[in-house]
Design brief:
Elements: H1 5-34, E1 51-57, H2 64-72, E2 81-87, H3 94-99, E3 106-110, H4 117-123, E4 132-137, E5 141-142, H5 147-152, E6 159-169, H6 177-197, E7 207-211, H7 212-215, H8 225-235, E8 239-251, H9 256-276, H10 283-317, H11 322-343, H12 352-375
Parallel strand pairs: 1-2, 1-4, 2-3, 6-8
Antiparallel strand pairs: 4-7, 5-8, 6-7
Amino acid sequence: MEVSAVAILLLLLPGLLFGYAYVVYPLLLRLVAVVRRPAPIIVDPPEWPPISIVFSAYNEELSVGRTIESLLALDYPEERRQILVLSDASTDGTDEIVRGFAGRGVELFRMPRRAGKTAAENAALPLLRGEIIVNTDAAIRILPDSLKPIIRVFQDPSVGVASGRDLSVGDVNAEASSAESGYVVYEMWVRALETRLGSIVGSSGCFYAIRRALHQIPAPPEVARDFASALTAKEHGLRAVSVDDAICLVPRTTSLVREFRRKTRTMASGLATLWYKRALLNPFRHGLFAWMLWSHKLVRWLVFLASPPALAELTVLSADLVAAQVALGLLLLGVVLGTVALRSPEGTKLPPVIALCGFALAAHIAGILAWARVIRGQLHTVWEPTRRPT
């Protein structure tokens, strides 16, 4: 059987896109970064600027108290720090727990009805008093000495956004842990390389800071503010940087099913954000930044769009080609192993191969569903925070 060039392209396209986005792109970043001078060392400012620390919460009564305690323990002048909790119309004891910290300066803003994280952030804009807005998450722990490093970089007037460094922590035996932890380490490495070249193309939703003027720009409810923050900075002639010393601890999800739901939601909002800021993909206007945005974001997501046609073509070719039959068999084996991982009870310790297959299967299904949502125009979905171990 003679295989056409179109068939070969359909078969190879997901792998080519994946290889470019995850291997070739960071290697190119590495090569270019070698000739760039390291960023100058920035010392503490004469006076620390006033800041607002903000996080959204929906039914977080199990974690919100510990989160607030950790924020109060951060090394930063108390009189120059505002802490504001945004409750997305929580129905449990979240609001009462937050009100219990009022005597220590913690403020609560409650949405009258559930509208999602971005809508709550938009509604709370007039309440923010800081020059720098620090965004975090209800299940995240910022190390006590990590706040000043992320604020320090704003002494550089070209910096509009600063993103912290995620550190995955938790049960190493949980089913999703090894693959998730490896991905986080890889992602932080890529962001560090992008910073050497000038700007990252997306911030960490777990811990990032942004100048007040940029944060005051409202965003549509379907847009992910953490991703959009770096793009907004670029639109205003500023940079977004990754700060290695600004470390936040991100508890690993203990279930691949939870990870699947998180990926579906974040990828769909990421695609919606990229469409909203699509002008930045123009390489003739935005040069190096547009290339990084294509490579780091869009090409990664195109892998999932290219996978179903590749699978269909492989199935057709398997009727006549032994090589296609072998490839299809290995793929189906991976799907079976991945399904075993997805159906395993939460917290189950799995062999690395099965855990990796589960992570890959969850990511692919999530990516395909995210594209389906965007293509159907289902851009705005109800925000459901990822429940992480406390």
